[in-house]
Design brief:
heterodimer, A: 180 residues, mainly alpha, 9 helices, 75% helix, B: 216 residues
Amino acid sequence: MSDARLIRELLRHQGDFMAYLMAMVRDLDAAEEIFQNAAVVVMQHAGDPAAEIIRDFRAWAKEIVRRQALHHLRTRGRAARIAPTEPALLEQIDRAFDADVADSGQRQRELDALRDCASRLPDAQRRLVALRYEGRASFDAIGTAVGRTAAAVQRALSRTRRMLHDCMASKLSAAEDLCP
Amino acid sequence: MSTTSRDDAAGHPDRGLHDLLARHFDGGLTADEQRHLAERLAVSPAARATLARFLRLEGAMFRLAAAGLIAPPADKSGAAVPVHAVPVESGPTLPTCRRRAAFAVAGGLLAAIAVAVAWRSLPEIVGARGSGTPGSIDAVADRWLELRRAPQSAEATVSEPTPGGATVSEPPAVADSTADPEQNADDPGSDAAPPPGWLVAALADEAATPTTPDAS
């Protein structure tokens, strides 16, 4: 696989892999570090004749990402700020990721719906989400910025995620009802 | 395939499951809650589909964030990357099924154009997202150089799966920096591993072409 194609495929799936890593390690800093390590490994295959036969980039690269994540959990689990994820749950996360058959059209519709849902959030709530996802800020840092405790920020972000999920599902459901 | 939030056979959303999943991503579940969630996921394909949907939601959040599309307009200090430039799937957007037939032919053409435009604009996208963004050339390059300077930290790089093999069931082996160099082919800390060509070319391009007007 050419350099250009590897980079394009990696960027194309970056959001998926970051989501997968967040589910695995539940720590944004750790997820970013693991992704970067995995990206280095992926890119080292540029020009590798063996990489020419990659049939499913998402599955192949995800295996690299998974191994990096498991390595992180084994070696840094005890020192991590967040308790390691239960092995049984890791298995189910992996299973759900592998079994996800959403196609590109569905993902794009979800992205469009989410963008609309996010734009309708109250500014204060939207700011929290932006600080977390755009600013890559910790709960502590966000709490300092907005005058709340880290725990309150954590709960608020979880509530917002659920709201966005419900909003997105509602929009897509309405669209499906129009097209039985 | 249904994209809605119907988690049981009767088609009702499972609020408890949604709550557990929403909290999980922020590290808000106790060990007991995690085990409870795992048990539910293990026995219910619908619950796993819901988890997959939350994973896609999380991925979409990262995509919107990369494009600078989450912050309230008043908080934005600079121009955001247009949403069409976000490196997401290359398929066409079909708002409703009623338009699918009309867009079927045009969709294929648009997809090809979108891929071409996205690829041509890749340097701008990467540059606009800043060096701290995972997956950017700068970030990967920084990580590469960091590992080159500190071979002992190369333990973070783990062996890769076999190309073409989508399923690897055995426990992953961790690269040992003292083992056979053949097994360390992916170890950027190894003296035997030169910087990859793509990285050298990308850095050279960036050095030659400022990504912002102020960069010169």
